[in-house]
Specification:
Layout lengths: L2 H6 L9 E15 L5 E4 L6 E2 L2 H11 L4 E14 L4 E6 L13 H4 L6 H9 L4 H4 L10 E5 L7 E2 L7 E6 L8 E6 L5 H14 L8
Antiparallel strand pairs: 1-2, 1-3, 1-4, 1-7, 4-5, 4-8, 5-6, 8-9
Length: 208
């Protein structure tokens, strides 16, 4: 089964209702590897959260000796039908979704099946026609279905997104998170959401 099929299940044919920009969070773990190198890991959908407090809980549950964590605030898309909502991020690029070039009429038109929308981002068949260089790695795209009560903050133009790095005081203490300026920009994500809004507007009556 495809990644999109596993994500959507029986909701694959539900019609698209909205695409909105949101500030989301992703947790990555750095561990020391051989010869002084460092490995970076994330836990797939579990690493993607809608609040900073939830991201911190992911870090606490994942802490091991020799590990360091980073929380990044990332511009993401909320893709919804009448019955379900999905969060989607592309977190390797500083300008998330900035190189996506899918056909808006084919993939972002209100009422099309959710599967078609998410395929445009998560199905890497036709990868070169949907993204321009530098293209993100498939591992850069993380998505999951949101639960009832998960309400991300909407992303605003010019948003200053943040990041946090872990510091450990001791085994009996919670991780201390040092805030810093994030590297992500909202422009690419906002452009996709704005495109959906344009396609949602009723056509203007022709001038007589």
């Amino acid at each position: 089964m495809s990644k999109v099929h596993d994500l959507l299940g029986e909701g694959a044919q539900d019609p698209l209702r909205s695409v909105m920009p949101a500030a989301l969070f992703i947790v990555t773990r750095q561990r020391n590897a051989w010869h002084g190198t460092e490995s970076r890991q994330y836990k797939g959908p579990t690493s993607l959260t809608t609040t900073l407090s939830a991201a911190k809980k992911v870090g606490e549950g994942w802490r091991r000796q020799g590990s360091q964590f980073t929380i990044q605030e990332i511009p993401g898309l909320l893709i919804a039908s009448h019955h379900s909502r999905y969060a989607l991020v592309e977190f390797h690029s500083s300008n998330s979704f900035g190189t996506w070039r899918g056909d808006p009429v084919e993939y972002l038109r209100p009422g099309i099946p959710l599967r078609s929308v998410l395929d445009a981002f998560l199905d890497f068949t036709g990868y070169y026609s949907k993204w321009t260089a530098p293209r993100p790695s498939p591992d850069s795209l993380v998505s999951r279905r949101l639960q009832e009560g998960e309400i991300p903050l909407l992303l605003e133009p010019g948003a200053n997104l943040r990041a946090w790095s872990s510091e450990f005081i001791g085994a009996d203490y919670l991780i201390y998170w040092r805030e810093q300026k994030g590297r992500h920009k909202p422009d690419g994500t906002l452009k996709i959401a704005d495109t959906f809004l344009e396609l949602s507007r009723p056509p203007k009556p022709q001038e007589l």
